[in-house]
Amino acid sequence: MAFPIDRPRRLRRTERMRGLVRETTLSRGDLVYPMFVGPGRGVRQEIRSMPGQFNLSVDTAVAEAQEAASLGLPAVILFGIPAVKDARATGAWSEEGIVQQATRAIKKAVPEIMVITDVCLCEYTDHGHCGVVEGDAILNDPTLDLLAKTAVTQAQAGADIVAPSDMMDGRVAAIRRALDAAGLADTPILSYAAKYASGFYGPFREAAQSTPQFGDRRSHQMDPANVLEALREVDLDIEEGADMVMIKPALPYLDVIRRVRERVQVPVAAYHVSGEYAMIEAAARNGWIDRDRVMIESLTAIRRAGADFILTYHAKDAARLLG
Ligand code: PBG
């Protein structure tokens, strides 16, 4: 069958018709809002390279979480900026760490929103690397213990999900073992399974002051050229006990999201990262693109590729538009 019998435009004539045959849905329940929490009170400082996003203190983070909940978002993910950084990333795993404090405060004031905590050391080390450093090497195995301690104190503070983003080998197994030993067998792990060494994290590193003082993250984050390696990382993390896996960044890696979605039986998340947000905001502020339209189109594309849910700085704005 072909033209003139076949006319695909018949199904595009009205919005009601297009809605009936739409293949991909995007709703508020698919979106997670990332927040940066640091010391102080009443802090709400805009991040230069992420206009519309803020460095917060615990009290203002609670207010943001409240707003996120009232917009119908299911979860926030917390990143900490500690008052002091040191070689052992004490601020990451201390019971009084900034993320542990913020988690307790949010779960107390807004129990209906889920708190996901990012498990990584880079925001808490004075050298800005994701693990224990010796010379110019990032040591894998000595780092696992600190990551496991971080996840346990976060879960004890009330985190609903812990999300390791460090890309050390064996960290999911180490975290699962430590959670279970601490009586936290019900806390799920969302692993950043395929996290690429990406230039798109630039604005995040400004916000979290986590740019490495020397070298880069290529010895643990993945080469942007690889996809088979992503499948291997995902398989290993699931074997080690990951309940959900994440691909990061999102838009430049839609093929990876698709390949992973077709391969695994666990939920797949995608992180629409800081640089992706910054590009949309910058072009929109120049009047070069229609921000709302490009935002919804981008998030829909990530869902179409196969992501079950999306971590995005656009979560609140998208929730407002989606109603
Ligand atoms: C590591 C971490 C990073 C991001 C999330 N978790 C930064 C990095 O790997 O350098 C980036 C998120 C973004 O760019 O929005 N704690």
Tell me what the structure shows.
This protein is of the alpha/beta class and 323 residues long. It has one domain (25-322): Aldolase class I (TIM Barrel, Alpha-Beta Barrel), CATH 3.20.20.70. Helices cover 40% and strands 19% of the residues. It is built from twelve helices and twelve strands. The chain has helices at residues 15-21, 58-70, 90-93, 98-109, 141-156, 171-181, 202-208, 228-240, 254-263, 274-285, 291-305, 315-322; strands at 31-37, 44-47, 50-56, 75-80, 114-119, 132-134, 137-139, 161-164, 190-195, 244-248, 268-272, 309-312. Strands 1, 2, 3, 4, 5, 8, 9, 10, 11 and 12 form a ten-stranded mixed β-sheet that branches. Strands 6-7 form a two-stranded antiparallel sheet. A hairpin with a 2-residue loop joins strand 6 and strand 7 (137-139). The longest helix has 16 residues, at 141-156. The mean pLDDT is 97. Bound molecules: ligand PBG. The site of ligand PBG has 11 residues, from helix 7.
What key attributes describe this structure?
40% helix; 323 residues; alpha/beta; 12 helices; binds ligand PBG; TIM Barrel; single chain; two-stranded antiparallel ribbon; ten-stranded mixed beta sheet
